[in-house]
Amino acid sequence: MSRVVLITGGSRGIGLACAQRFAALGDKVAVTYNSSPPPPEFFGVKCDVTNADDVDAAFTAVEEHFGPVEILVSNAGITKDTLLLRMSEADFSAVIDANLTAAFRVVKRATPKMLKARSGRIILMSSVVGLLGSAGQANYAASKAGLVGFARSLARELGSRSITVNVIAPGPVATDMTAALGEDRLKELTNAVPLNRMASPEEIAGVVAFLAGPDGGYITGAVIPVDGGLGMGH
How far apart are alpha carbons 164 and 32 in whole angstroms? Predict the structure, then answer.
């Protein structure tokens, strides 16, 4: 049966690759976006995930178009990188809000319908940085590490209703965002990865699809690294 999938931040990069993977499986795919709309084959909903009213409106639109969300991929996020002594409180708070608190907003909105159905898959997009740390990314690392405790708490709360909650921790991924870093920084990133390359967005999407599929049904509260070995041991 075709499932209803909602991916936040699904108009490009990892989110778009996830949308394309689920669509190829025959699922009904909706994506939220903030600035650039997704390709026309997906049901796009403009949504600022830092705004609770926007989140509620987005879910309502998806529910009216497709029905209740059965698979939620919380992928939207931002970075505001700088060293601690230069980091403003506003920059720290903005990243926590967009990456961690936004996950709370979308998961809380999705959960009542999943509880009623006694079924659901929730996948949160973290980062290897949340496990390793990264100079100049204290705000980003804190937000991504917070997703782990959040997911594991929810896995315990929701497991009796057959709702799984898992975290994916990608390493460096070849997207428009990383392409803008410049050749020297990209070389530095890939040199740190045992596999000596960046991931493709499709490789992340494959793990998302696995966790959302029948073979991932007995996995919950897990942190799945897709990082080329960068974070091994964490």
Answer: 22
